[in-house]
Design brief:
protein biosynthesis; Tscrpt_elong_fac_GreA/B_C; GreA/GreB family elongation factor; 7 strands; 5-stranded mixed sheet; Tscrpt_elong_fac_GreA/B_fam; Chitinase A, domain 3; GreA/GreB_C_sf; alpha/beta
């Protein structure tokens, strides 16, 4: 019989489960980011995996491995001065005639909906080292973003 007509188990046609991808580069964290990472690891370690079905337990272990790795590699960055855009600053900028404020934080702490962007994001990289009042290039266009104000983050 031809191999094309043989039915193997459905398991061999399922998508493979991979580890959660670790963002490239350093794992810089703010004091808040380090605290949140520790809390996440503690919560995951405290969860009752015995009460989960096999797939849920595997997923839980994958997520726990990710967060343990992130905690082990976390680099707490010193507080920024606030005189230039840097990791750990809150930046008010103007882009397309709209003024917005974002905090520049670590990859795992980033949440654009809460006004937190990763230091590795294109916008943060474009603004790095700029001072208030300075215009910076963004998305291949010169003088696109105006830095309005900079302050250091004061959250723990």
């Amino acid at each position: 019989m031809s191999v094309a007509f043989r039915r193997e188990s459905d398991d061999e046609h399922m998508e493979p489960k991979f580890e959660l991808p670790i963002p490239p580069g350093p794992n810089w964290v703010t004091a808040r980011g380090l605290r949140l990472t520790r809390e996440t690891v503690d919560a995951l370690e405290g969860a009752d995996a015995a009460g989960m079905d096999e797939e849920a337990a595997k997923k839980h272990k994958r997520v726990l491995r990710y967060w343990r790795t992130r905690l082990a590699t976390a680099e707490l960055r010193p507080a920024a001065e606030g005189d230039a855009v840097a990791f750990g600053t809150r930046v008010t900028y103007r882009l397309n005639k709209q003024e917005k404020t974002v905090a520049i934080v670590g990859d795992d702490e980033a949440d654009p909906n809460e006004g937190r962007i990763s230091f590795s994001s294109p916008l943060a990289r474009a603004m790095m080292d700029a001072a208030a009042g300075e215009m910076v290039d963004f998305a291949g266009k010169p003088d696109t973003v105006e830095i309005v104000a900079i302050e250091k983050l004061s959250e723990a």
